[in-house]
Amino acid sequence: MIREPQPHWQKKSYRSVALAVTIVFLVVVLTGILFVVQVKQHVVDLVAQQSFKTDQHVLKTLLDDPLQRNDLAQMKRILKDFFEGNPDYVVIRLYDPDKSPLFSATRPVEQSQLTLQAEITVGESQRRVHLVVIKEVVVSTQWLPYRGWRAIALIVLGCVVLSQLMWLFIKRFGLDPLYAGVLREQHYYRSLFDQAQEAILVMSQSGELLRFNNAARRLFKLPETMETGNLRQFHDKTNWLKIRSFIKMIKQQGHHTETAYLPSIDLCVEILGSQIVLEEQTLIQLVILDITEQYHSQLKLKELQEELERSLDEYRTLFDYSVDGLTVRNLNGELLLCNKSYEEMLGRTFAELNHQHFTKLCDPQEKSALSEKYREALEGKSILFEFTYEHKDGHHFPVEIRSIVIDYRGEPCVLTAVRDISERREKDQRLRELSAVVDHSNDAVMIMDDSGNVLAVNKTFCDLSGYSEEDLLNRLPLFLRAERHDRVFYTDLVKQLRDEGRWEGEIWIRHHRGHSLPQWLRIETVEEPENKTTRYVAVSADLSEEKAWEEKMLQLAQTDPLTGSANRVLFRDRLQQAIKRAQSRKGMEVQVFSLDLDYFKRINDSLGHVAGDRMLIEVAARLKRVSRGQDTISRLSGDEFAILVTCLNDEVDATRMAQKMLQAISEPMMIDGAELIITASIGVALYPGDGDDDVTLMANADNAMHQAKRQGRSRMCYFSAELADKAQEYLTIESKLRRALENSELQLYYQPQVDLATGDIVAAEALLRWHSDELGWVSPDRMIPVAEEGGLIIALGRWIIEECCRTIRGYHRSSGNWFPIAVNVSARQFLEPGFTDELVEIVRFYDIPPSLLELELTESMMLDDVGKAIETMKALSFKGFKIALDDFGTGYTSLAYLKQFPVSKLKLDRAFVTDVHRDVNDAAIAEALVTFTRVMGLSLVAEGIEESVQHECLNLMGFRFGQGYLFSRPLPKDQFISLLETKLGVSFVRTIPPD
Known about the structure:
The chain is of the alpha+beta class. The protein folds into six domains: 45-137; 197-290, Beta-Lactamase; 322-420, Beta-Lactamase (2-Layer Sandwich), CATH 3.30.450; 424-545, 2-Layer Sandwich (Beta-Lactamase); 559-719, Alpha-Beta Plaits (2-Layer Sandwich), CATH 3.30.70.270; 750-768 and 793-985, Alpha-Beta Barrel (TIM Barrel), CATH 3.20.20.450. The chain contains 33 helices and 37 strands. It has an eight-stranded mixed β-barrel, surrounded by five helices. Strands 7-6-5-10-9-8 form a six-stranded antiparallel β-sheet. Strands 12-11-15-14-13 form a five-stranded antiparallel β-sheet. Helix 19 (609-626) packs antiparallel against helix 20 (654-666) and helix 22 (721-743) packs across helix 23. Residues 1-12, 38-44, 124-130, 136-146 and 986-995 have low confidence and may be disordered. This is Diguanylate cyclase/phosphodiesterase with PAS/PAC sensor(S). InterPro entries: Biofilm_reg_signaling (IPR052155), EAL_dom (IPR001633), EAL_sf (IPR035919), GGDEF_dom (IPR000160), Nucleotide_cyclase (IPR029787), PAC (IPR001610), PAS (IPR000014), PAS-assoc_C (IPR000700).
């Protein structure tokens, strides 16, 4: 805030006083300088004494209060804290009135040190406590010389003279009393201005703020640092325009009063403005009263009044347009008010009914009963009863009456709601008539009100649910809910019933004994003309027999009829459900096992399908024993099973589970009195790592199972990415191989077998080769397993045999000579029923001697089914075909078996040929085999001869025939024929056609 302008005389007084003060200050400074120069005495006890007096006063003040409360402990704590906080004090003691010490604290002091001591009396006259304080002080004194005292005297005398002169000066000009009066007056008016409750502002004609009090600062939330300014910077444009307009009115009228609301700061004020003249300046003074609370109260009151008027209008509308007839009667029963529905109900107007007693509307015989009900209402009871009213035309109709006491225009009155229940009575009558029909219906019937409470049930419903009629009536049928349905099911049912007025479908209810019953339920909504739901009629039929039949059919459709385990359809469904649960449950793993029995076909072929079926039943039973109850065992087809296991956090180890299955299956089992042993191969795929759907998981588990078979059977194998790639490769090769067979893309290469002594070609081995435009060269190692698993091996083997026969016949046709060719036969083709007859038909078709077609078999192939192998070989030998045992030495053929096999040639595996010239053991085996075949009358061929030293060594040992890259690589037919023309052995030339 700005200060008031100062008068001229006051400014002059200020200059005079300032000059006088300056002179006095100079005199005092000169005196001090002289005093410091002259005085050499250093007295330190003056400060100590002053501090000592101050400490006495402080202690006295601190001890007054605890002394009055007689709190001796508090007094001791105060003295102790004071003594510890002031290290200069050496002794503090507290005495009671009889001089006995109550508290004492001391510090050591030397005798040479002087002390100050005092005794302070604390407390009232009735109870006095003495305090002794001793403080160490060091004092040294030095007397001034004579000249020093003289100088001091002169200085003191000069100060006295100057003081007298200043007093005369102030008195001469009258400064002291006048100035003091002005200051008092200014302070008085300033206090009135600042402490006023009303906000006061003084502004210039242009709106500049010159002065304002604290109330104005708080009201307008002006900054503490603001002294002057313009109100415009603290208000938005709208508020400033209002203030500016108000100032304009003051200028025009000299004064103005107005009430204004400033929304930007939520402030409502009453402003009293006037013009004032100060120091010949015309200023504007505003006195502002804060009436914000009154303003908001008026607004709230206005809103409440409007709300009250709206409520009254709403209640008046509800009263007038209520479907029920509404009346207000005084304590005497006379009508004061009624709505239109009541008038229409009775066929009378309000003018006819006004002040009419309620007994005028009923039968005279019922007046007493109606009067009794009215008295009950007057007693404050809420009454509900049915009665009969008389219409103006004379007919009577039933009504339902509800009455309560209310306050109407300051008087107690009775409010009555009258409802015409004629239609309800008619519907109740119809329901009673229908109930007779319903009670004898074969369907279960239940009727509920609009709240769902059971109103009626027939005997069939009681028999079906097991509940009596008393158990069901006036209850919500929630106890009939079965656990088969969740809350969503019932929520949807109620929603459809409310939206469409009906619901029909299959539902399960809970029987009184606890089990669930299936029903076909139909619920219909019976509505009043006003479209209000009043009844629900539920009609249901028992579906127990149908469900039993469906379950039986479903079981047949989802289970394997032989083993009783799940079939492929049920297995896939449960696998899909398990995947869904695993997707929403962290840590859940799904394991799929694909199990296939090893060599199960032999059981069927040797013992028959009945024995095979019994074995499958036993295998399924063993799988169930080693699995958990919640696991799914499924027979997919033939001897192929699938097992589904779900677990949390590695609860089930798939490896251990597979080993348990393999061990259980491999145990001997008695089938038709014979002890049989069978093994199985298992592939495992895991969710989510090996697939995210049922088809992928089952396919990957199947791929892993086939890999287990390729690894030697009777073992388990996990699916891996490599297996996936390999499976994809198998599918690709299978597809391309099938097309290659159809399009004649395959070809045979021929590798000669030579006489080691002469080098002549004596025979050849046919080797399958395939060059695909997309896959390139596909080796037999990749091709043959795919053909076996894909079911192409039979067709492929037939094509190879026919191609060899065509080559033999073609060479004979061109040269007149016969030439033998050896062909590899797969195990599946060899053990295929009718294989011998098929070969006979082929050689007859191409008209070649059977002896020129040499069949190469492996040891392991014959050991798979020794009896079947011996039988087939004998049949082939009888037909004239030559049989060679390929890769001899790498299998497990015993000499006893070899003696039974009707073979004509042995082919020593390359594993014994590679190091025959430097490995003693290989050489010994080779020499022994030469002797053995010579004795047995068998031909012997060494495979894999690639070096000359091997050739020489084998020749010296007595080997007659050999085969290998040393002599020739496998060659296409044309190149091989050219080579054959030059090196054909004479002993193998046949010029006479066979018989």
